[in-house]
Design brief:
By secondary structure, the protein is α/β, with parallel strands linked by helices. The chain is 39% helix and 17% strand. Strand 10 and strand 11 (210-211) form a beta hairpin.
Length: 313
């Protein structure tokens, strides 16, 4: 099976490279990773030429325009990468009977709901970035609408972190430079490990030397639990101190502030908590839950392990 992974240079792309090195996925498969240098996702012709030449049976799109604030002034680029590029991939998969795995975001919601968001809840993005991802989702759904022989999964995640720039690394850097920090405490969500997300994606879509047959659709994919940015920052600092890192900040030197006290160009959803019941049911139906090493670990367990690993580097 030919497997094509877009976005090899991002946090999620790097996590997929690590996951797909396992013998379970290597055997009988030809895997190609592409980044910006190999394919400019703002250029439809480059995407089309790559798809037609490599002829993937499985497409994994980890690439995205994720500069949330810059997107407010770079909307054309955001929509090219987050909307048009996935649409091209979806049309290819739909017409060639291929499988497409794509990743979306909690930013498709406005965050006004009190409880957990389900896949059936109405989308209402607040930012250009969120809108570009939401329109991209709809374009992909439309591509598979007419009894396509292909299949697709769109996994929505929140607060992703991995090998690259992210909130956790920023907090650790600031904790070494400053004696106190202020962090927002009224925006809620779930930190999602890129490693965890890639593991889920690989098992969901790959069955040996062929694509796994799953139920096409949108799924929410985040670890167990929930938190806010302030609590996350406090855990990160404490975990780093426990791992022996030398910091100027302790958890008691972190002050909670409302989101209104830290205005940004692009508004963020206040509630990014996503229900993962649909994904849980699908993984159980496929007999995959027992195979996923980290499925039942909570977000704080994963963050603590991540910080501990960073402390060794």
């Amino acid at each position: 099976m030919n497997i094509l992974v877009f976005g090899k240079d991002g946090q999620l792309g790097k996590a997929f490279q690590e996951q797909l090195q396992h013998a379970l996925f290597q055997r009988g498969n030809t895997i190609r990773f592409v980044g910006r240098n190999e394919c400019d996702l703002s250029d439809v012709s480059q995407i089309t030429n790559l798809l037609n030449s490599f002829k993937p049976q499985l497409l994994i799109n980890t690439a995205a325009y994720t500069a949330v604030d810059k997107a407010e002034t770079e909307s054309d680029l955001a929509f090219a990468i987050n909307t048009k590029a996935p649409e091209v991939m979806a049309k290819y998969a739909a017409s060639h009977g291929a499988t497409l795995l794509h990743f979306s975001t909690d930013y498709v919601f406005d965050g006004s709901k009190r409880g957990l968001y389900t896949e059936l809840d109405r989308t209402n993005p607040l930012s250009v970035y969120g809108k570009s991802k939401e329109v991209g989702e709809r374009a992909m759904l439309n591509a598979f609408f007419d009894n396509s022989p292909g299949q697709f999964a769109i996994l929505r995640a929140s607060w992703v972190y991995g090998d690259g720039g992210n909130f956790i690394r920023t907090i650790l850097r600031l904790a070494k430079e400053r004696t106190s920090l202020q962090v927002i405490d009224d925006q809620y969500g779930v930190p999602t490990s890129a490693t965890w997300l890639a593991e889920v994606g690989c098992y969901l879509t790959i069955d040996g030397e062929k694509p796994r047959q799953f139920t096409s659709g949108i799924y929410h994919a985040t670890p167990l639990g929930e938190t806010n940015w302030y609590s996350l920052a406090s855990l990160v600092v404490q975990s780093a101190l426990d791992a022996g890192q030398q910091l100027q900040v302790s958890p008691t030197a972190i002050s909670p502030i409302p989101a209104s006290g830290y205005p940004l160009p692009a508004p963020r959803p206040m509630n990014s908590r996503l229900s993962t019941n649909k994904l849980q049911i699908e993984l159980e139906r496929l007999g995959l839950v027992s195979k996923l090493l980290h499925w039942n670990t909570t977000w704080d367990e994963q963050v603590t392990a991540y910080v501990k690993q960073l402390s060794k580097n």
